[in-house]
Design goal:
alpha/beta, about 20% strand, SAM-dependent_MTases_sf, 9-stranded mixed beta sheet, RNA binding, tRNA (cytidine-5-)-methyltransferase activity
Amino acid sequence: MLTRLKAKSERNLAKRICKVVLDHFEKQYSKELGDAWNTVRDVLISPACWQYAVLLNRFNYSFELEKNLHLKGYHTLSQGSLPYHPKSMQCYLSRTPDRMPSERHQIGNLKKYYLLNAASLLPVLALELRDGEKVLDLCAAPGGKSVALLQCADPGYLHCNEYDGLRFRWLKQTLESFIPQPLVDVIKVSELDGRDLGDAQPGTFDKVLVDAPCSNDRSWLFSSDSQKAACRISQRRNLPVLQIELLRSAIKALRPGGLLVYSTCTLSKAENQDVISEILNSYSNIIPVDIKEMARTCSRDFTFAPTGQECGLLVIPDKGKAWGPMYIAKLKKS
């Protein structure tokens, strides 16, 4: 009986995987990732083996929750071994595909935890936020990275921007669910075109995060409308143009000496290494920052693919470490 049910659920899943997208990825990623693509593909098309990390909210800490996570076999993200890992940021990972239930949004009540792909914390940690700094999250929705930044430090000013109207409302709700009123006063939430923000606020920020719109490999594989998926794929080549424009704006918004982190949730070299190479070739005052140490200290929890860049890391989904895709690059403005 169980075998029949399992076979049926696998057939249903196979129906949901978008063949147009899978065929396109197969062609591109088997070239870019080589043999590693076989494992990556198997993880990406099997939501049953996906993992979910639990980021604790320091503004509504629950000892019972933390105790429960320990009992369930969760462990903390490489605490203490990372070059920058503030004690206030507590994230728990499971080695199995366990998923905690999501908490409901209730006005006036702060949530105790945020569920996320653990690899999405790496761009936040790479930014090395300190108390009192001015930080810009240029493409901030749905808000997970903004919430994670606020677990790390108390910024003097945090500007969360999101251009898409629907995602902007999602961002506002996320912040309301996790951040107490006193901190809300140092946060600005805007709905601007990120490409214009650098001109509007030149040289303003100590740190800038550009978690750019990209080919979201996980969600694209499960597109329910194959015509829409085919359209996305045909327009995919335009994404690096947008990503470069967003980075140019971020560089303008960054003060000299400030740090910029660029991230995507795609495996695509055109949207990752090629975008960063274009920026480095265009600016004499933008310097790559070596982040290989992060890969070395996080190898217990994440699998990394070579990027050919000292300033860039690529987390690829693996069996038992189903995090990513996540590309992270770190730059400094001189």
